[in-house]
Design brief:
Number of helices: 21
Strand order of the largest sheet: 3-6-5-4-7-8-11-12
Oligomer: single chain
Number of strands: 18
Structural class: alpha/beta
Radius of gyration: 23 Å
């Protein structure tokens, strides 16, 4: 046996950084086995076979997926649509998987993929494991149509439709379809305009497509659309993007934002323990909640600007709650900026916390009088604050929710260019009572009963005898195959 050399590699999935581990040259990474709930799978597949219905597979990859899919899963159950969940299990600690129990989804998980590694390894594992699972279902229930329902812009959203299409010649259903990043034209000349003009041009000026970021989420959502037959878009803008890219309008429905149903549930339900009992400090005054995790914001200049902005805001007297996510934690250590956070702990107007496990606590805080605004790079938070009625400061150069800026005007891009620029921009808004009130009272963009709208459409598609894949001769109405036309492949 030849001696194997070792060299350090960096796990780049949770962040751009990560701890160094020793790997061997020409290595094949260890892959965990997937786990099946065969009793649940058989029950759902036999029901679909008997009732001549599709089976929907809700594909969950990250913490927000649990609550974003809540409304769709509840609606599918109410409408009698056979379904179960695939859980990637790429996040496996209690904090990032609390949604399973918070939304009572644990009994509906039929397949646990147990994927690990960086983006490349996760993608490879997904392709192999999902392909195997697709063939497993085909072998045991050859006449049952099974359709993955993918969400948003995670790696699952991109890879699962490809694996399914290659294995079964069936496409997926994409929810949150048509998310395409845009930037205000004024971003290119921010140095030449004052802060007031910079904001005004975001609200009323020209916007440009700029699909470089978020990375890799813009690739994920774009690729997912190509592997999906049916597309559910949050707003008309998303539909326009899809039509421009060549997707047939008859297969696109504008249904609203996927955060709506879970948000409404948590606005009515109290958390098991109030966030103000967990963090009593938050009860005093108004707080700016800072949560940063995007890979592009972990690049040197941007991340330094964000950390220094946090420091400057605290010194200026702002109450700041800094949420340390896994990506943030790795970046703080990588750039040796942990000391900045530690020094801030002496300030009574600074609160440093880990990710809040319960979505109910996040909603509770956002709805409270103690929430001033959020400085975030999250897509979902831009939607949530629009619906709740609080100002959002999006720490990005572009956004895939531009409608929250130029249409609703509940959101302003605060680009991580420098701490000086970010602090000036945030101060200008927060010190302008009329502007902060305008942002908080903006029109709501994302509708209601979104999950039910999606599932009602899918139910009608099933009844019409639609299929989640069409050859060109079928799409043009030239002729229909007597069989699905896949047995000979």
């Amino acid at each position: 046996m030849t001696e194997q050399k070792t060299f350090p590699v960096t796990d780049a999935y949770e962040s751009m950084f990560g701890s160094k581990v020793e790997e061997t040259e020409n290595f094949l990474p260890s892959i965990l086995p997937l786990n099946l709930n065969k009793h649940l799978i058989q029950s759902v597949m036999e029901k679909a076979k008997k009732e001549k219905k599709w089976v929907l597979i809700f594909v969950i990859g990250t913490k927000p997926c649990f609550y974003k899919f809540y409304g769709s899963i509840v609606a599918a159950n109410k409408l009698g649509i056979p379904n179960f969940i695939i859980n990637s299990n790429q996040h496996y600690d209690d904090v990032l998987t609390r949604g399973l129990t918070e939304f009572n989804l644990q009994t509906q998980v039929a397949c646990n993929l147990a994927i690990r590694g960086d983006l490349a390894q996760k993608s490879a594992e997904l392709l192999m494991k999902v392909s195997w699972f697709a063939r497993y279902l085909k072998k045991n229930w050859p006449n049952v149509t099974v359709v993955p329902v993918v969400l948003g812009d995670t790696i699952m959203t991109a890879i699962v439709p490809a694996a399914w299409m290659f294995s079964r010649v069936e496409k997926a259903i994409q929810v949150e379809a048509g998310l395409r990043s845009m930037a205000p034209e004024v971003m290119k000349r921010y140095k030449d305009v004052d802060i007031e003009t910079f904001i005004d041009q975001q609200f009323y000026g020209k916007w440009l497509l700029l699909r470089n970021e978020p990375f890799p989420e813009q690739w994920d959502t774009y690729t997912s659309a190509a592997g999906s037959e049916f597309h559910f878009a949050p707003v008309e803008l998303n539909k326009e993007h899809l039509i421009r890219e060549g997707y047939p309008e008859k297969n696109i429905w504008v249904v609203g934002g996927v955060v709506v149903d879970a948000l409404e549930l948590k606005r009515k339900e109290k958390a098991e323990r109030s966030v103000f009992d967990v963090y009593p400090q938050l009860e005093k005054g108004q707080w700016l909640r800072v949560d940063i995790h995007r890979r592009e914001n972990l690049t040197p200049r941007r991340f330094k600007a964000i950390v220094e902005t946090t420091l400057d805001l605290v010194k200026k007297g702002y109450n700041v709650n800094f949420i340390e996510m896994s990506a943030t934690r790795n970046a703080l250590d990588y750039y040796k900026m942990r000391d900045v956070m530690n020094k801030l702990r002496k300030y009574k107007n600074f609160l440093h916390t880990n990710v809040w496990p319960e979505y109910a606590n996040v909603v509770e805080f956002f709805e409270s009088k103690n929430c001033l605004a959020a400085l975030t790079d999250s897509g979902g938070v831009q939607e949530e604050l629009n619906l709740i009625g609080k100002a959002c400061f999006t720490c990005r150069i572009s956004t895939d929710r531009p409608e929250t800026v130029y249409d609703a005007k509940s959101n302003v891009l605060v680009p991580p260019i420098s701490s000086n620029y970010m602090v000036r921009l945030i101060a200008h808004i927060t010190n302008n009572a009329a502007l902060i009130k305008k942002m908080g009272s903006a029109k709501k963009l994302y509708g209601s009963n979104v999950g039910y709208k999606q599932m009602s459409i899918i139910s009608k598609l099933m009844k019409k005898g639609e299929r989640p894949f069409k050859w060109a001769h079928e799409a043009l109405g030239l002729w229909k195959e007597k069989s699905k036309g896949i047995e000979y492949l």
